[in-house]
């Protein structure tokens, strides 16, 4: 039976996603603040956010470095060329997490990330030893490919649909 305090206590998904959102407030990217945490069991092992390499001017200081690429996608049964824009100045939160945590800690762990990983980050996470990815905001540019990759690798990949970020996390993102 839950006591009054237990009824107010956050579940583990909310707790760790709240931390990921608070970590994202360290980002200086003007386009999207992303935070991630590495968890094994209920133990927090690491945090990271997106940004320029240490000691290098970030997008807020030097401007975004946008690269454009085109990809063929099937839309309404027809192949169409779709333009994608990506900032290449920024190291993604998931990449920073992998750079600053140990492989042994990642084995069997869960990654909580504010945003669905892009294709490159999904590939890196798929090879990192983690067994689950929990995200909040979708990233439609790579969604189908990433879902297929995670299913193929047997990595649990789930979205927290009814989650509300802490108000202090701040940044609104438009898709």
Report what the structure shows.
This protein has about 180 residues and is α/β, with parallel strands linked by helices. It is about 30% helix and about 30% strand. Helix 6 runs parallel beside helix 7. The mean pLDDT is about 90.
List keywords for this structure.
globular; two-stranded antiparallel sheet; 175 residues; single chain; 5-stranded mixed β-sheet; alpha/beta
Chart the SSEs and their pairings:
Blueprint (H helix, E strand, L loop, with lengths): L3 H5 L3 H13 L10 E6 L2 E7 L9 H4 L3 E10 L2 E10 L5 H7 L3 H4 L3 E6 L3 H8 L5 E6 L5 H11 L2 E4 L16
Parallel strand pairs: 5-6, 6-7
Antiparallel strand pairs: 1-2, 1-5, 3-4
Pfam families: dCMP_cyt_deam_1
InterPro entries: APOBEC/CMP_deaminase_Zn-bd, CMP_dCMP_dom, Cytidine_deaminase-like, dCMP_deaminase, dCMP_deaminase-rel, Deoxycytidylate_deaminase_dom
Protein name: Deoxycytidylate deaminase
């Amino acid at each position: 039976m839950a006591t009054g305090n237990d009824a107010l206590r956050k579940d583990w998904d909310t707790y760790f996603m709240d931390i990921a959102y608070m970590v994202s407030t360290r980002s200086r990217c003007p386009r999207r603040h992303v935070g991630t945490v590495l968890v094994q069991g209920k133990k927090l092992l690491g945090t990271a956010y997106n940004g320029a390499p240490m000691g290098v001017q970030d997008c807020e200081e030097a401007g975004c470095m946008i690269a454009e690429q085109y990809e063929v996608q099937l839309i309404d049964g027809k192949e169409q060329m779709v333009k994608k824009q990506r900032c290449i100045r920024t190291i993604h939160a998931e990449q920073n997490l992998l750079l600053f945590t140990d492989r042994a800690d990642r084995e069997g762990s869960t990654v909580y990330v504010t945003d669905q990983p892009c294709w490159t980050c999904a590939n890196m996470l798929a090879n990192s030893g983690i067994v689950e990815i929990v995200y909040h905001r979708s990233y439609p540019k790579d969604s189908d490919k990433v879902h297929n990759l995670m299913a193929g690798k047997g990595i649990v990949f789930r979205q927290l649909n009814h989650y509300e970020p802490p108000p202090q996390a701040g940044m609104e993102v438009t898709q």
